[in-house]
Amino acid sequence: MSISPETLNQLLQFILGLAVLIFLHESGHFLAARLFKVEVEEFGIGFPPRLVKLFEAGGTKFTLNWIPLGGFVRIKGENDPEVPGGLAASKPWVRLAVLFAGPLTNLLLGVVLAVVLFYNLGEPVLDKVVVQQVAPNSPAQQAGLLPGDVILSVEGQPVTGIEDLQEAIRARLGLPTRLGYQRGDQQAEISLTPRNPPPPEEGAIGVALGYETRKTTWARAIPQGLSASLEYMRAVLLLPVNLVRGEVSTEEARPVGYKGMFDIYQEIRNPLWFFTMISMSLGVFNLFPIPALDGGRILLTLPELILRRRVPAQFENMVHLVGFALLLMLLIYINLQDFINPVQLP
Prior knowledge:
Layout: H1 5-35, E1 40-57, E2 60-75, H2 92-121, E3 123-134, H3 139-143, E4 150-154, E5 157-158, H4 162-170, E6 177-183, E7 186-192, E8 207-214, H5 218-245, H6 258-267, H7 271-287, H8 294-307, H9 313-340
Antiparallel strand pairs: 1-2, 3-4, 3-8, 4-5, 4-6, 6-7
Helix pairs in contact: 1-2, 1-7, 2-5, 2-7, 2-8, 5-7
């Protein structure tokens, strides 16, 4: 099975992007540990087995490893409070700072990337609805609509936004409908019949919609990127709740592994958008109170701040060991599902 040069290029970009996100996550832990005078024994680029030791500085070995997906930090006494100068022997607020630093690095990076994304894409013009994609054999394609067309009116009524257009189309299901549109400098009108009932994956006329954009400024891009980032983080945090409530389908909430992520990466038009979402997802996911993740370690550290007594180290290590084993099995299952039941992209 041969791989096209384009696919190989996308694969290399994908691997490099993920590696950078994981590397920066571990850099957050490393910098926080060094800031609070906690010794770091090794900072590895890539995952073991080790290829070569690059150099040593400040008591930390910097190594290059064979598996090029990110990196790791090995902090002194991470799980043993009897080791002097180690992480587990540090005060609880120091341990919390080091644990929070990794996910926060990813979240901050996601915000920065979102701001850059908004600046590069421009500011949406909310009264200019643009056709982004046209489904094959749909009423829109048969009528001659093309990506880039701006929808101006439905049955002579001006279109002022995507929701406005969708409501107008829903009111015309099964009825011949006139659409006014603009292509370049030319305006024209077509007639089509919205499907009744609409196919679930395409909608009534078979188009994906967006907004026309115009150049923006950093002063406007920063609050827009921050707002969009916070909304995305909120959506990820509430995903388990919405799944239980039935507001999100199991297919929409389905986790994906490396192959699933690469499938999505191949379909999107903007790699910056992809890595923005992955960086924020990585940050939020690592804060979930799951044993072996940063969030699980944070959860078992918090009682010490309130009760002034720490969770027994032996118990904590056992919880994380069992949690890591279960998490590893889950990751194997998720990655296998990517091949057995590939993710279905809209």
